Amino acid sequence: MTALDRTDPEGAIAAAAKRCSNWGRWGADDVLGTLNFLDESARLAGAACIRRGAVFSLAQSFDMNGPQKGWRRRTNPVHTMLDTGTDAERGSQGFPHGLGGADDVVFMPLQASTQWDGLGHIFDHGHAWNGRRAGDVVTSDGDLVTGIETAAARIAGRGVLLDVARVVGPDGELPDGFAITTEHLEATIAAHGVTVGRGDLVCVRTGRLARARREGWNDYAGGASPGLSFTTAEWLHDTEIAGIATDTWGFEVRPNEFDDAFQPLHQVCIPNMGLFIGEMWDFDALAADCAADGVHEFFLAAAPLPVTGAVGAPVNPLAVK
Prior knowledge:
Elements: H1 9-19, H2 40-47, E1 55-57, E2 78-83, H3 85-90, E3 103-107, E4 115-117, H4 134-137, E5 138-139, E6 142-143, E7 156-162, H5 164-168, E8 179-180, H6 182-192, E9 201-204, H7 208-215, E10 227-228, H8 233-238, E11 243-246, H9 264-273, E12 276-279, H10 284-293, E13 297-301, E14 312-314, E15 318-320
Parallel strand pairs: 7-9, 8-10, 9-11, 11-12
Antiparallel strand pairs: 1-15, 2-3, 4-12, 4-14, 5-6, 7-13, 13-15
Helix pairs in contact: 1-9
C-alpha cells in the first residue's frame, strides 16, 4: 500500500501527479485521455461479454426529487411542459384536422444526476489535461478543446463491476469515510474472479446510493461518503483502464484523507492522468444480478449527452450481460 503523508497534501498531490501523468502520451493534440485505451479490440472484447441479452440501466432518475442541495449552484432537474393534453383537448395548439401533441423542456446542471466528468472539469495549478493552460481550454464559451462531445462515440466496451461493498462491507454497504484502497480493489477482483485491464470501464459499488434510498438523500450530494482512497492513483494509472464510475457523488472518499485538501484524487486523475470519471451511477440491480450468476463483466454503453463544450454531461449507462 502506498504510504500517505497526511501532513503534506500539496507535496503528495504533486508527487502523484508526476508519477501518474499521461501528458504527451498520445501526442500534444490529444483530447481523449484514457479513452485512447478503449480501442476497437477492447470494444470487441466487451461485446463478447453479452451472453443472455439482459440489460440494466445504471442511471439514477433525472427529476426534482434528486440529491442536489445547491452546492456550487447545482440544482435538481426542473421539468416543465410546453404543450399538454389539456391544450390539445381545448384545440388551442393551432394544428389542423384534430392533431394535438405534447412538448416539454428540462433545465438542469449537467452534473445533477448520473454523469461523466469531462477532461475540462478539473485543473491542476492552472493546467488542464495534457498540460494546456486552463484558460485556453475552458472559457465563457465552454470547453473549446476537450468538450464532452469528443467522447460521444467512444465510451462503449467491456464493463467490470467491482462490488466492493458486498465483498468488504459487513452488510453489503460501506460506511461514510471508508477509503477504498488498492488492496480492497484487488481483493474484490479476486473474489469476483474477474480481470481488470487496458480499456476496461470499471464500476465501483460502495452501497452509498442504496443507503440514500433507504434513509433519504441527506448529504449524499457533497457530504461524507465512502470512496476511493488517494492511494489508488497509481493503480488507476497502471491498470490502463479507460474510465471508472461510482455510486457516489464525489468518486473519492469524503471527508478527503488530507485535512487541507479538496478532491485531491480528482486533481491527479482528470488533468494529469486524463481519466474519465463517472459519478452518481446506480449499480444496485446490476449488482444483485452479478451476485446471483457470478458474472461481473458485461458490455457497457455509456455515451455522454454530446453538449458542445460541456465539461460534464448526463448519461444513461446500459450494462448488457
